[in-house]
Specification:
The protein is mainly alpha-helical. It has helices spanning 2-23, 30-43, 53-61, 63-66, 68-76, 78-81, 85-118.
Amino acid sequence: MKYIKQFGIILAVSFLGEILHQYIPLPIPASIYGIIILFVCLEWKILPVSAVKETSSFFIEIMPIMFIPAAVGLLDSWQIIQTSWVSYTVITVLSTFVVMVVSGKVVQLVMNRTKKKEI
């Protein structure tokens, strides 16, 4: 029963993200709104971590399985993608590199600010 309750909480937050997506005219996916809402609720202690911990851990464990439909969709679209696969590969590699660099710099910035506050 605990897992159903936790899944219901995650589903409700996702639904709130869908509602926000309908009313806020920004090009942001509804899932991002949901993640932000969940983050804010957890950070501000509106929702305790224990309220979603086990189910969210389960979702993280099965996350690779969730990419299978997308991979099958790519294989199904191979005739369309075939002419541009080099472009897709270059864009994927470059964007991955940019995300890694930016993430690393942000982590360093946060760590440096945290060290300065401790001193």
